[in-house]
Amino acid sequence: MNAEALAFYALAAMVLVGGFLVVQSRNLVHAAISLVPTLLGVAGLYVLLNAEFVTAIQILIYVGAITVLILFVILLTEGATGLRVRQRNEQVPLALLVCGILVVLFLVVLLRVPWGPPTGPMPAYNPGAVGRSFLMPYVLAFEVTSLVILASLVGAIVVARREG
Amino acid sequence: MPLDWAYVAVFALVGAVMAVLPLGVVWLLAPRSQYAHKRIPYESGIVPFGEAWSQFHVRYYLFGLAFLLFDIEVIYIYPWAVVLRELGGFALVEMAVFLGVLGVALAYAWKKGALEWA
Amino acid sequence: MGLGGLLDALWQVEFLRMVVLAAVVFTFLAVGGPLFLVLAERKISAWIQARVGPKHVGPHGILQTVADTVKLLQKESIVPHRADVVLFTAAPVLVAVAALLDWIVIPFAPGVIVRDLNVGILYFAAVSSLTVIGILTGGWASNNKYSLLGGLRSAAQMVSYELPLGFSLLVVATLTGTLSTVRIVEAQPYPAHFYPSVIVAAVVFLIAATAEANRIPFDLPEAEAELVAGYFSEYTPMRFALFQLGEYGALLASSALFTTLFLGGWKGPFALPGVGPVVDGMVWFLLKTYAVVFFLMWVRWTYPRSRIDQLLNVSWKILLPVSMANLLVAGVLVVLG
Questions:
Q1: How many other β-carbons are positioned within 10 Å of the β-carbon of residue A24?
Q2: Closest Cβ–Cβ partner in A61, A72, A156 for B75
Q3: Last residue of a domain, one of A86, A109, A137
Q4: Domain termination residue (choose one: A36, A67, A86)
């Protein structure tokens, strides 16, 4: 097994173990902290895809910002920390059904796609290339992003004001 | 380039090991007293009452969310910063529009008092 | 030995290099960080307040922090009642590791850098943001009211100041057209017409870095009069030492990054006689870095502590709009340049 495959399996294991801890922890703070190895593992997978700009973003946004926000929310919620959260409710059969459908869909995709070795050079994901595509072909999407951020902020403030 | 990040991974692992080692030294060397009261959380000399957790104000969430949104904005500007010299005036105008909209977002949050701690 | 065997052997050499470098940088961080800086802080604060400071251990007290470290190694490690042992331990380790990871992209001299990442300064911002999680976790895991409140305040403050800090990095990236720390040093000194933007970015960076390091005038998270010691109130010997390592390591890393971005990094005003470019670069780099650290200590012992609303106002209502405008100014300067 070469170094790349070894790194892939190690990272995949990190993502899966972290993800498992997130869903099975009965303590919400533990669940939130378990996101850290999961998200860092995903960042590592981006490295294997030669996408180091995306890797850095993954760490900065997902680990450094979203996890912190989730922790804030948990600490703000009455009775959410230290509490043993109930892991089951009456929706279990429905959830099983949805998960079952998803598994079937994933299996169909996995089995039907002709997975071969990649052809041609790896696409460049360095900041320069990303910048050129933001500013030339995808300029509209780029500008609309700022509107999306504006809308999210307005929404958050409206919701928090109503409840606060 | 993945080699760069292999360095990052090894640094993290070696750093964690070197950080845990002195904890092991303490475990070996340090005395352990059986005095049970030593484990009571410090609360200015009185016996702690209630839980350590108490409900926190929603403002932490507002600041957290505003931070997340502006952090995402910062991410979008990095690629622009690298290619500005190459693409010139057009790119500058695009960024002015982008930052203008986010200036509006900041002004809105300010006006609505979301940036007030009180 | 076939080609595969050769590659394997090379990989092993490279791996050994990684481990050794990590150990070397960690040692530098421990010695040049808390071990030296705590002593320096105590000496400088004493000097500013017309006191003597530590003077009994070793000549002029220079072995004080060494003695403190030896003492800490022999003290009992106490975990508070109903605290979360795993997270209580993981939190300071994470903070120390984050401080170590910062140093991968810091250039000490021409060619002396662990790895010159393409996304250098973005990487620095990303790994420093991990500290917040460590502090929040440590505060929560202590099962102590002061710790939790201190951790939350610290997190709110650190995320608020990450933004102006990020914009300062962006201004430098715009002016130089690169994210690599090595190429940023090579691009200095900046052309004179960049100065307005550079100076504003440098001032914003310095203020934000002080806040990120939780130092006076921004040290509310550990305001000893009201919160005991903030998020590390419950921390005893070595776990406490790891938080100190993280804190002073991050302070040193911010100063090193300031040197790299704004003070020309390894470049000195004149070449030192009789030494090669590597030694010359390292001497200038360390001189400048510690000069920045000294400046931050001077500020700490001169100004009073601010209130949390004042602190957040400075970040969101002054630094953030100013740095957004400054970024556009930098863009105009580059396009006209």
A1: 11
A2: A61
A3: A86
A4: A86
